[in-house]
Amino acid sequence: MGAIANGSASKTTPASPEDVWHHVSDGSRVAPWWPNAERAEDVQGGIFTLVLRSSRGVPVRTDWQVGTSRRPEIQRWEQQIANTPFAKALVASAVEVRIEPTDGGGSRVTVSVERELKQKGLFANRLGTKASKEQAGQALASLLREVSSAG
């Protein structure tokens, strides 16, 4: 087993759970708020491809499948790792968005990034966890901007 690198971010928004759900329930709506995503492709049911832009400007395809979907509470995607370049570094990768109703009709939204790295050790764990927390925070901030601009 490699290093576990999980991170999450939470925030309350005046948007209703259904408003947030609209942006997370369909793979074709993920790209506008996911960090470094340019577009979604090949969206078929619970399977989709996100095309990301790497720090060097290279497009990178990431394939995802819905693992859990409970309207309007939780949406979880699992990255397809086998037979991809990610298999060199990752054992598993998932993203989960939890939406909890708050008093007054708003929502508490939590974005979690979960990864199991091939690399082992404390250093890998620390760097991976830091990166996962940063990505979850960026995704949450962008998601909430997307939700508020749509409302």
Care to describe what's here?
By secondary structure, the chain is an alpha+beta fold. It is built from two helices and seven strands; from the N terminus they run βαββββββα. The chain has a seven-stranded antiparallel sheet.
Write the SSE topology.
Layout: E1 4-13, H1 17-24, E2 37-44, E3 47-53, E4 59-70, E5 74-79, E6 90-101, E7 107-117, H2 122-150
Antiparallel strand pairs: 1-7, 2-3, 3-4, 4-5, 5-6, 6-7
- Count the helices. How many? 2
Low-confidence stretches: none
Structural class: alpha+beta
What's the total number of strands? 7
Task: Give the overall average pLDDT.
Answer: 93
State the end-to-end distance: 44 Å
Q: Evaluate the radius of gyration.
A: 15 Å
Assembly status? single chain
- Overall geometry comes to globular
The percent of residues in helical segments reads 10-25%
Strand content: 35-45%
Output the helix-strand order: EHEEEEEEH
Could you name the key traits of this structure?
151 residues, alpha+beta, seven-stranded antiparallel sheet, 2 helices
Question: What's the short story on this structure?
Answer:
This protein has 151 residues and is of the alpha+beta class. The protein has two helices and seven strands.
